[in-house]
Amino acid sequence: MHVSPRHLLAASAAAAAILLCGGGAALANVKAGVDAWQAGNYGAAVREWRADADKGDADAQFNLGQAYKLGRGVPADVGTAQSWFEKAARQGHGQAQAQMGLILFHKGEHAKAMPWIRKGADMGDPRAQYYLGIALFNGDLAKKDWPRAYAMMHLAAAQGLAQASSHLQQMDKHISVADRQKGLALARQLEKAAPAAPVATHASVAPKRPAQLPGKVATTPLAPWAAAPSVRMQTQPPRPAAAIAGGGNWRIQLGAYSNAANARKAWEGLRAKSGALGSLQPHFVPAGAVTRLQAGPLASRAAADKACGAAKAAGAACFPVAS
After folding, report:
1. The three-state (H, E, C) secondary structure of 48-102, written as one string
2. Contact indicator for 110, 185 with CB cutoff of 8 Å
3. Cα(12)–Cα(83) distance, rounded to whole angstroms?
4. pLDDT tens column, 65-99
5. Which range (26-35, 161-170, 305-314) has the least confidence?
6. Could you tell me if 10 and 38 are in contact, meaning their C-beta atoms sit under 8 angstroms apart?
7. 311: which of 47, 111, 158, 316 fits an S-S bond (Cβ 3.0–4.6 Å)?
């Protein structure tokens, strides 16, 4: 997935993705709004975007939706945010499509949410991929498809979504090795077929994880104003794990970074903190706009789980991957 320099992430604890797209005067106005937003002048940012949003500029509409969602420069109003997101989404704006799906989902309008979530997932939005993965696993809001569910969750985790990494590990307990490998192959196909249009990254206040329910894996909410979703990832009786032929067919994934240099720096830091990782070989795997940091080889899933334990003790997110 390609992230253009024209896309900018407002850096704050409750930041929103602010897009710099379009051309001519519209681009200048959107950029002026982003500059004002980053300077903390949210009212000025909203004024810069409103005229272009009223004229139908999808990026300005999306930015206004973010402002209303977060209550920056305008009173917080999810209904108005949804209205602006829908205008942008109907023009094919990937981030707006994902936002539409998440808003409708958290309002309990699951049937209306799923087409937008699918569109957002197709555009590479990790939150949409996460929710679509849950739906495909459950088989209640979408036809059950465990390989595709695994692919969606893998793609979301590869972009650094912590909730997806956790759920991927849960899926590993219930999805056969054969279906997991089908899912990984599908994920690689989807990455290659990803649209060339840039997709911005969204950041939100990290909510507390809901309490674990017996026999279920809770879906973690991803929006600062949203309640916990009602959909749960239903656990199935664990299937016997199929043997993996040969040795050294596992790696651990330790994160996804904006470039290889950052991935290398992260690896050096982790190796310095954990001697248990010192025997592993780092792998810097290009994946669209990010570089995945993986390490291996490891002879078995059990060995990968043990290595992940050491990585997590060193402060890293980690999940095993079949190489």
Report:
1. HHHHHHHCCCHHHHHHHHHHHHHCCCCCCCHHHHHHHHHHHHCCCCHHHHHHHHH
2. no
3. 24
4. 999 998 989 999 999 999 999 999 999 888 899 99
5. 26-35
6. yes
7. 316
Phi and psi torsions of 227, nearest 5° = -85, 165
Radius of gyration of the chain (CA): 20
Query: The tokens of 39 are what?
Result: 């300077």
Q: Whose CA is closest to 305, among 267, 269, 251?
A: 251
164's enclosing H/E stretch is: helix 162-172
- The 10 Å CB-count burial string (b at 16+, else e) for 10-30 is beeeebbbbbbbbeeebbebb
pTM passes above 0.70: no
Please answer whether residues 271 and 298 qualify as being in contact, where contact means their C-beta atoms are separated by less than 8 angstroms.
no
Average pLDDT of 177-181?
A: 91
Cβ-in-10-Å burial (0-12, 13-18, 19+) of 226 comes to middle
Q: What single-letter amino acid sits at 155? A: L
Q: Provide the token pair at 130.
A: 């996460």
CA torsion, points 303, 246, 177, 260, in degrees to nearest 10? 60
Distance from the first to the final alpha carbon of the chain: 21
